[in-house]
Amino acid sequence: MEPLGERVWNHMLVLFTVGAELGETPIELFIASEGDALQWLTEKCGNRYHVLNNKNCGDGSQVTELLEKIEEMVAENRGQPYKIDRETLQHVEEKRRAEKRRMKDQQLEKKRL
């Protein structure tokens, strides 16, 4: 996520698909009980999250509510999609090429052995 920059978090929400497993446990309590990593993630996403009950697929209100949250997030971003700037894109491409070279070098080394 680092190469994408901090702005990317304004365009994300966490989607939980374990609603059936939560039972009567509120999602906030679940997030708090799962530790720092999940709390950090939801906070980075502006505390935007949604829970789908995967065993109640016929409940269209779940999807409607999710779409409303997405629309709200889009409005907060003034309808602008996340755009990666050239410098960041070049950085990501350089890292990708370096990783590809490293993998190729490892394969060549294995062949030599």
Structural class: mainly alpha
Catalogue the unreliable spans: none
By CATH, the topology of the largest domain is Rossmann fold
Described by strand count, sense and barrel closure, the largest sheet is: 2 strands, parallel
Task: Name the features.
5 helices; extended; Rossmann fold; mainly alpha; 5% strand; 2 strands; single chain; 113 residues
Structure description:
This protein is mainly alpha-helical and 113 residues long. It is 57% helix and 5% strand. It folds into 2 domains: 81 residues, P-loop containing nucleotide triphosphate hydrolases (Rossmann fold), CATH 3.40.50.300; 31 residues. Strands 1-2 form a two-stranded parallel sheet. It is extended, with a radius of gyration of 20 Å.
Topology of helices and strands:
Blueprint: E1 14-16, H1 19-22, H2 27-33, H3 36-44, E2 49-51, H4 60-76, H5 86-112
Parallel strand pairs: 1-2
Concise synopsis of the structure shown:
This protein has 113 residues and is mostly helical. The protein is built from five helices and two strands; from the N terminus they run E-H-H-H-E-H-H.
